[in-house]
Design the sequence.
């Protein structure tokens, strides 16, 4: 049996064909990174227009690559929450139309839950129960993941997401979008202890929340002081830039790793699964690996291309398929975060 999954929640138009034994028959990701680069971040209206142009060719290509015909697809699944409204709509309308035309079931995918499920796809074995840490451009949250159908929000950021902070600080340092990989590269030459940047709520063990806007402001003040000088007028030398990047990255990694540990202790779980674009960060992966050894928990993540947005993680839809959780054509988008379970 074949499942077609679609992903268009942010700036990647992606599709995959996944067999019921878990084999990835084919996958396609059309990235819009180059389109948004000149604006230093994702422009929602441009993103939805680009999805409109790409969704049909991407679907066409993924089915061809799978070596099957459309008629062989047994179910159509789509990420309908959370994300940019216009972007989610494009995937949803495409999925509904295909499901209707083929007369096959429609399944809803919660994009954040799918990011955690990427760890299961990578592991090829059951990862549940676990604490799920999602760190992406739009979200930074901790979940209690009881099983693939039962996720409960434990805490989230009260302002910026970790990826958003990477992107904004990168812009301040004159590094191109997407900021995460560029800060990582620049930080490799720097000293992570050069500047003591803030880590919000670090010692409040019961508080499973994040905040990165103060950190972003601290980098800004370090750069330009409280004066009116603009970033463009700064002539940063390479060492200072690398030290700022490394110290900023260290502060984010410290906050994420410490809160993940708090969540493991509070839930009495011993597996941590990390997904989302920032999970591709080498310093974060190394820190979590060493913490896992030190504090005796199991750390799981996915290969880099399954951390950033993709449709392969939509394999979570097979779990809903087997549980008989189907949607009708009233399925709508839900741009905001769902606190407990229901993808629809
Ligand atoms: O999950 P994702 O692909 O899209 C969203 O759902 O938002 O995450 C994108 C975010 C961007 O903010 C990007 O800068 C960040 O992930 N990112 C990284 C790295 N690779 C991507 N952040 C830090 N280090 C990286 N290596
Ligand atoms: Zn994502």
Sequence:
């Amino acid at each position: 049996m074949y499942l077609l999954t679609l992903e268009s929640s942010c700036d990647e138009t992606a599709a995959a064909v996944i067999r019921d034994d878990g084999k990835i028959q084919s996958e396609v990701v059309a990235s819009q990174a180059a389109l948004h680069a000149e604006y230093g971040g994702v422009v929602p209206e441009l993103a939805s227009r680009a999805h409109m142009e790409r969704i049909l060719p991407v679907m066409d290509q993924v089915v061809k690559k799978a070596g099957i015909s459309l008629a062989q697809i047994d179910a159509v699944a789509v990420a309908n929450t959370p994300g940019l409204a216009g972007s989610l709509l494009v995937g949803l309308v495409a999925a509904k139309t295909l499901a209707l035309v083929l007369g096959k079931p429609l399944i809803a995918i919660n994009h954040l839950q799918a990011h955690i499920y990427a760890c299961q796809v990578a592991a090829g074995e059951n990862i549940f129960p676990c604490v799920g840490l999602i760190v992406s451009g739009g979200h930074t949250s901790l979940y209690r993941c009881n099983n693939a159908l039962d996720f409960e929000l434990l805490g989230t950021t009260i302002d910026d997401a970790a990826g958003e902070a990477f992107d904004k600080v990168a812009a301040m340092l004159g590094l191109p979008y997407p900021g995460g990989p560029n800060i990582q590269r620049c930080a490799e030459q720097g000293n992570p202890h050069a500047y003591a940047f803030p880590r919000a709520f670090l010692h409040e063990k019961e508080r499973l929340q994040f905040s990165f806007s103060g950190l972003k402001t601290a980098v800004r003040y370090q750069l330009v002081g409280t004066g009116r000088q603009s970033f463009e007028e700064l002539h940063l030398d390479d060492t200072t830039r690398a030290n700022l990047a490394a110290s900023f990255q260290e502060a984010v990694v410290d906050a994420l790793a410490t809160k993940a540990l708090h969540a493991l202790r509070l839930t009495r779980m011993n597996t941590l699964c990390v997904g989302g674009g920032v999970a591709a960060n080498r310093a974060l992966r190394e820190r979590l690996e060493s913490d896992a050894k030190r504090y005796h928990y199991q750390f799981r993540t996915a290969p880099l291309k399954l951390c950033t947005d993709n449709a392969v993680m939509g394999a979570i839809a097979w779990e809903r398929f087997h549980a008989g959780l189907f949607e009708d054509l009233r399925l709508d988008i839900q741009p905001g975060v769902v606190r407990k379970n229901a993808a629809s």
Strands lie at 2-7, 12-19, 24-31, 73-81, 106-110, 130-135, 140-147, 150-156, 271-275, 298-300. The radius of gyration is 20 Å. Residues 111, 115, 136, 276, 309 surround zinc ion (ligand 2) (CB under 6 Å).
